[in-house]
Amino acid sequence: MHINAHFDSGNIDVQSAENPSDIRLRIRMDEGDEHGQWFFFQLSDVRGEACTISIENAGEMSYPAGFENYRVVASTDLSNWFRIDTAFDGTALSWRHTPETDTTWFAYFAPYTYDRHQRLIGRAQAAPGVRAEVLCPTPDGHAVTLLRFGEPAANKKSCWVIARQHPGESMAEWWAEGFVNRLLDPEDAVARALLERAVVYVVPSMNPDGAVRGHLRCNAHGVNLNRAWKDPDETHSPEVYFTRRRMHETGVDFFMDVHGDEALPYNFVAGGEGVPSWTEAMNQQFQAFKNRLAAITPDFQTTYGYPVSPPASSDLRKATDYVTETFGCLAMTLEMPFKDAANHPVPEIGWSPGRCQRLGASCLDAIWQTLDD
Ligand SMILES: [Zn+2]
Predict the structure, then answer these.
(1) Which residue, 210, 263, 266, 347, is the most exposed by fewest CB within 10 angstroms?
(2) Contact partners, residue 340, CB within 8 Å, separation at least 6
């Protein structure tokens, strides 16, 4: 038997791998030792053997509730990901599986690799009217890349979409790929019309260091980037520092920050209701956006989500609150599930890369319909 995680986004430590019926593993914490939950590893040479796999420190991770009613993601080809019944007793996360192939990969969610990220950048920049700007190098030496769709002009709005500040939320970059694919489609009337009236700025991966390292939430310096927006640091949180600087250059008329939520089995958005400058007009614009998106795709819903922030409870270290307060525009955090969208579940795959991509495509319709607001 062989278990390893020495690859892009890999994360697991082996405690015991002598007996297939008693494979004991531990998740490695993010830099800074504060967060952890993401795992991704390869299990080999146990074809036909009944394996019991247990992650012994699951209960010590950032969001233990995320492992309740959760089903692990598995693949034999890194393209098709399926779900396996999984148990969580408050301490260990465990599942049984008898591989029909020599190698199986297991992950918290379908990984989105740095190679795929680079191909996305390459494919996008080859299209007419699309530019790829490196905003900064990261502490580990990756590039934070901004895709700009269209040329800025006085009569055009600036729409900003950023994804994957939290690197273990790989669904965010699957979403970004679906969103970008639609912008790249010359036969898509909505994309064409949107780009006549707006420049769309997309950062598909805000935290490539954390993604490659197999982190849940932090960058290479152990910084949670979505707590760095009020006072970003050129050295410790350059990903936010340089993105924010570019946003101040372009102005922002619409902003979406794309994430995944460990616990809630729904797609939902959270707004900037708690900021000091929040108005009833902003609230109406936000409610209208949610209702439009819910009408466009049944995978999105408005019933379940985070409690609405009370007035004057904002945290300007978070991107949505910072942008709402600074630019006075419609800004929101989109959350997708690690589990499934319980309003329209697909048990075999749960919430999946394909469903993320389609939700990304649907958000383009909602932005288009919101432009006149
Ligand atoms: Zn997040």
Answers:
(1) 347
(2) 265, 346, 347, 350, 351
Supply the residues annotated as catalytic: 335
Q: How remote is the CA of residue 4 from the centroid of ligand 1, in Å?
A: 26
CB count in 10 Å sphere of residue 16: 11
Q: Are residues 54 and 126 in the same domain?
A: no
pLDDT of the residue at 144: 98
Radius of gyration of the chain (CA): 20
Asked which of 107, 134, 153 is the last residue of a domain, the reply is 107
pLDDT of the residue at 344: 96
* Percentage of the chain modeled with pLDDT above 70: 100
Tell whether 33 and 146 lie within a shared domain: no
The pTM of this model reads 0.98
Cα 305 to middle of ligand 1, angstroms: 14
Rounded distance from Cα 260 to ligand 1 centre (Å)? 5
Segment 225-239, tens digit of pLDDT: 999 999 999 999 999
